[in-house]
Every structure is written in C-alpha cells, then in structure tokens.
Amino acid sequence: MSNPVLVEVLRGGLVESRHAGAVAVADAEGGLVLALGDVERPVFPRSAVKAFQALPLIESGAADRLGLTEAEIALAVASHGGEPAHVETATAMLAKAGVDASALECGAHRPSYAKAAQALIRAGLKPSALHNNCSGKHAGFICTACAAGIEPAGYIAAAHPVMREVMGAVADMAGAATSGPGVGIDGCSIPTQAAPLAAVARGFARFGTGAHLGPERARAAARIRAAVAAHPHMVAGTERFCTEIMQIFGIRAFVKTGAEGVFCAAFPELGYGVALKCDDGTTRASELMMAAVIGKLLPLSEGEGQALQRFLTPAMKNWNGTEVGSLRPAGPLA
Amino acid sequence: MSNPVLVEVLRGGLVESRHAGAVAVADAEGGLVLALGDVERPVFPRSAVKAFQALPLIESGAADRLGLTEAEIALAVASHGGEPAHVETATAMLAKAGVDASALECGAHRPSYAKAAQALIRAGLKPSALHNNCSGKHAGFICTACAAGIEPAGYIAAAHPVMREVMGAVADMAGAATSGPGVGIDGCSIPTQAAPLAAVARGFARFGTGAHLGPERARAAARIRAAVAAHPHMVAGTERFCTEIMQIFGIRAFVKTGAEGVFCAAFPELGYGVALKCDDGTTRASELMMAAVIGKLLPLSEGEGQALQRFLTPAMKNWNGTEVGSLRPAGPLA
Questions:
Q1: Of A186, A254, A273, B86, which has fewest CB within 10 angstroms of its CB?
Q2: Helical axes B197-209 vs B161-174, angle rounded to 10°
Q3: What is the largest CA-CA distance in chain B?
Q4: B80 DSSP 8-state letter
Q5: What are the CA-CA distances from residue B75 to residues A141, B82, B197, B243 (Å)?
Q6: What is the pTM of this model?
Q7: B 81-110 near A (Cβ less than 8 A)
Q8: How confident is the model over A246-259, as pLDDT tens digits?
Q9: Can you list the domains of chain B with their CATH numbers?
Q10: Å between A182 CA and nearest CA of chain B
Q11: To the nearest whole number, what is the mean pLDDT of chain B?
Q12: Is residue B73 within a helix (H) or strand (E), and if so which, with residue range?
C-alpha cells in the first residue's frame, strides 16, 4: 500500500511533481486523532527527536550543575544554521563543560545558512565542527558526560554511558529501537533509532503535556519546551521554518524538522503530538505537511492564520523573480 | 494509479526513503521498449530537452554564419556549473553575436558548482547571468536571432520569432504543447512545454538516429550529439552525472538532466530514446533511474560496467566520512 500524495507542485496549469507521505497525530494515550498513510511502519525520525535526546541533559542534573542558560538548552535541541549566535552558544556550552571544540565528534560542515557560509569563505576560514547543525546537541551530550565525571571521548557510540541514556530516552518516549536493523547512523555520527510515526506522535503528545511521564521527565520536557519557545532562533535560525513557526506560535507549537523529510510537533493545548514523513525525504514537502497539520488542528487567530498562509502555498520564483509555480497541500491534507 | 517505487534509500537495516517515478524507452516509431508507470501523462521535460531547443541554432544556419565552435554548440545544450570554462565560452558566443552579457535574459544565480561559487565569493564578485546554468542556451537563442538580423531583446517570450522556432522544434520532436495549461515558465524564464514521457522518448530516439526527421534536422541532431560527445564538460561540468556518464560512453549515450527529476537520453546504436521523471522531482533519484536504464539497455564492456557501478549504488556518507546508507534501484528497475 503506497502512501497518499499529500503535497503537489504546480507549474503552468499542471501538477509538475508530487510528494507522498504519512502523518500521525496522537494523544498521550496513543489514540490516533489523524492517521494518513502507513503510520505503523518504522521510520528514522532523525533530528526531529532531538528534544527526546536532550532529556538526559536535564534529568541528570547536568544543565543545572553547569549553569546552562535557556538559550543553551534550546541549542541542545537544534538543527541550526551555523550562524554566529549558534557557534558562540555552542562554544560557551563546551567551555562550561571544561572542554573546547576539539571534543565535538559530529564532523565539520559549512554553515547551512548561506550567508553564514559566505561570510566564512570571505574571511578565508574553514568550517569547524561548531558550524555543524548538530553542534549544540553534541555539546549537550558532552555537558551530560562532563557534569557526571564521565570521560566524553567516544560519546557518539551506542555503548558510551551518555549515549545509552540518550537512546534509552528515545526508546521510552517513542517506542524506538535500541538495536538491530532499526538502528542506523545519523549524519552527525550518533545512532538514529527507528520508530513508527504513531509511536513518535504519542511521545510528542506526552512531551507536550507531561501526561504518562514521571514527574522528573515531565519537568525536563516542560523546561525544554519553554527554552525553545523563548529562543526560537537557537533551534534553527534565520529564514528557517521551525524558527518562524515558533516565532508565530510560541509555546503553543513545538515543531522540529529532521533529515529525509521527517517533522515532529507538540501542541500542548490540544494534548496532541505529531510525527510525519515525506516518503521521498524532501524538506519542501515535510514543511508544507507540517504547516497543513497546524492549519487543520490549531485554533488560529486572524493574524496567525495570515502568518501561516505563506507556509501553506509557498510560491516558486525563477531567477528573474517571476512566480512560475507553487506548492499546495493535496489529497487528505488539502 | 500511482507510479511504482523505482529508487530506495537505505539506512541501518531499513528502507528510509522511497522515490516513485515513470520511465519510457521508445524507438523512433514510438514503439515502447520499456514503460514503467504512467508514461502518457504530460510532464514538463525542463532542461532535459535543451538539445531540441538548440535545433534552430543549427538549422537556421546561425551556428555556421557566426562560426560557433563545437564547444560552443555543446554549451548551448548545457545545464552547466558556472565554472570558468562555461562562463568564458558563453561570453565568446555572445561576442560572436555582437552583444555582451547584458543581452542575457535568464537572470543571475550563483554557480551551481560549489567551488566556482566559492571562488566568486573569495574574489568579492557577484554572480552574473553568465553563471546561470542556462547561459549557454540563452547565448544560443541570441546567436540565432542576431545571425538572422532579428532584434534579440525579448527572446524569452513565446511570441518572439526565435522562441516561436524553439517551441516549434520541441513540439515537433516531442509532441509538446505550444499553448494552454501545458506551457509553463522555466527557471530561466523561457517557456517550458509539457509532453508525455512516451512522446519525449520517441523524440530522443529520432534525435539519436535521424529516423523520421528531415535531412536538415537529422544533420543538426547529429552535429549536436557529436559536439556534446566531444565536450562533455561543457554540457554540465565537474562532478556532474551528465558529464561523467558521457565521458564513459561518448557518442553511445547522450544523456541530459532537467529540473524536477526529469532525465532524457538517446542510445543511437540501439535506436532508442529515453525519458523519465521522478515524481517528487529529486535529482538523486532521477540520476539513479537513468544509470539503471543504461545498465539494463546498453551493452557494457567490463570497464564500462565497473565505471557505471558507482552510479547504480551510490553511498551516502556522513560528516565524518562514515558510510551511513546507500541508494539502489527498486521494483521493476532493480
């Protein structure tokens, strides 16, 4: 059974391209409020579950012991653009752990925010691991280790005590695999754990409400949500969907993207969690799918509705600035 | 009826993402040698039919009158990387037409080849229309106009005499629309004309063999194929699929990519043309689909088979260089 087409790309008077996918919206008990496509097949939620991966940083007491700020906690959940503020914040987290950038094991890549990448080239500098979109998450792992007196080196391996905690948190929250074919390696070298969208959505309903979580985990989840809502630029960056959506909705919508077309969200006021994946892994489609889910579920003021509109029918312009096409939600998301 | 999954993306022990699509392989009479998915639905073949769009440049006598070189003819068919050789060649074409880069109406964008883009930033220069991947095609349109004493300004409009010839050639070769909902605007601002994959494939069978073409068109097609085979770097560039495939196969395989996941080819020795589209518009999938079609159809020497292998199962590496996944042909392409 193939998943339904949920996003169409228009050009001229025709549908030029199509994106199929699956969407799960669940409550904290796992009841499915919305299920489009196959929501029971395991998928890799990738960076969309960074909030779950950051739970041990809070629960272990490391964030308090090292005096991490709200902005630093937000960066621990980020897929950031490598902008100066992101690099400075990751650097500060590492300093609090008593180490420097050489402790990062995520690998280096050019800032994903184009202007930051260009500035680096103009300055004649090479990108470092601090520019890696996952450097905040990795700095969080290193903080977790150092605050507990654990040697951080090798923290990306499944057998490292910090990564065991991290993988345990993802397994608890999302019913994710901890071994076998459902464990792959992510772009930043840590394990990525497959889970069904339905289970991930249930996990985000719990993350958003604290329901079915122990008191310590519920407090950690609330603290992470508050940190990201207060610092939406930290979690992604300039011209980024996650940042702009949370600038509109604040604490009402925690949204987080992941590679290969995954997107997760928590809407605390509704008690719902969301997990979706575009089959083909394309971000333009996963973002539109998330915008459509927000539009369908969240009660919107007139201003919020207007602000959401450009995410629902984004225009495609050519190199002369002429609008040549657009995207739209399709099928059951239309 | 949805199209079949033709490409799978693997991570851990799971299929992480899937690309559906359609493939038509036809002979010059339009007989379908291979038809996967819906090959009768009109699609925009985008830059994959630049070879058809360049026919008037040759047939009008403009290429001869202006003394265009083989490399310049190859660039007229290109989606190039904006590398220095591409920019210099486009500049030379415009000079032969008696104009300069200000005559280009394609718009400016950064070179698509990253190292060329970085060199431009380091030099403190802005990208110009010469760096646009379509600048050679546009230079060809301008040459066609100027050699005939036609004012080139406005050549991107469907009503311009040169664009009428160009659209007529695409309509003749591929059964493409010349008006109505099947005409959109391309990234470089010229019209893009929808046609069924089956008809586009038949057009490339004719382009590759000259069958069912008048003698003048057959000669023009052969001249374009020879130019591209002799200058595969001109038609795309460094680290580009089209260039590398034609460096392997020379005149035996004319291959040309287009935006939104289209790919076309001509295999003259077999008398076949190919047109395919990945439904979701992703290039990683359309390239793999084309590699799989080549592997299925073209007789390969041992060396050619080995050279093709890395295009058939490309590895995905993370930022530490660890192999974390791979792509493979799937379903009827496996």
A1: A186
A2: 100
A3: 63
A4: -
A5: 50, 11, 25, 12
A6: 0.97
A7: 105-109
A8: 999 999 999 999 99
A9: 5-333 (3.40.710)
A10: 6
A11: 97
A12: helix B70-75
